[in-house]
């Protein structure tokens, strides 16, 4: 995942409603109206949230054959996994730094 993609994903996930949508879509697909109801937002607000998530690549959608006006939204796992991989790298760096600091403090304490 590029730095720009990480930035876009974090920007999209900065909003608590969008984070809740991602959580819900991690459980199963939803229609926009169901997501609006589950998050306590209006349909226009949910539409804006979904647009941000779609643009960030965190969510995909599909048209319902019976009625092309309705779409079903799904979580796209690849960007979520890529963000997790980035976070794992950051955590590994900090664990290494803290381990080095601990060894330094222990050496100093023995003197």
Automatic annotation (TrEMBL):
Matching PROSITE patterns: HTH_ARSR_2
Q: Name one Pfam family in it.
A: HTH_5
For this protein, the record's CDD domains field holds:
HTH_ARSR (cd00090)
HTH arsR-type domain segment(s): 1-98
Instruction: Please verify whether the record's keywords include DNA-binding.
Output: yes
List, alphabetically, the InterPro entries matched. Answer: ArsR-like_HTH, HTH_ArsR_DNA-bd_dom, HTH_MetalResp_TranReg, WH-like_DNA-bd_sf, WH_DNA-bd_sf
Going by the UniProt record, its keywords in alphabetical order are: DNA-binding, Transcription, Transcription regulation
Could you tell me which Gene3D superfamilies the record lists for this protein?
Winged helix-like DNA-binding domain superfamily/Winged helix DNA-binding domain (1.10.10.10)
Q: Write down the superkingdom of origin.
A: Bacteria
Per its record, how is this protein called by name?
Answer: ArsR/SmtB family transcription factor
Taxonomic lineage is: Bacteria, Bacillati, Actinomycetota, Actinomycetes, Propionibacteriales
């Amino acid at each position: 995942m590029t730095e720009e993609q990480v930035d876009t994903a974090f920007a999209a996930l900065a909003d608590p409603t969008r984070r809740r949508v991602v959580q819900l879509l991690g459980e199963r697909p939803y229609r926009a109206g169901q997501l609006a109801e589950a998050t306590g937002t209006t349909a226009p607000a949910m539409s804006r949230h979904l647009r941000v998530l779609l643009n960030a690549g965190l969510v995909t959608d599909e048209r319902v054959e019976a009625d092309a006006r309705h779409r079903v939204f799904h979580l796209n796992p690849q960007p979520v996994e890529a963000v997790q991989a980035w976070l794992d790298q950051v955590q590994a760096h900090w664990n290494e730094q803290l381990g080095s600091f601990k060894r330094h403090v222990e050496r100093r304490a023995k003197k």
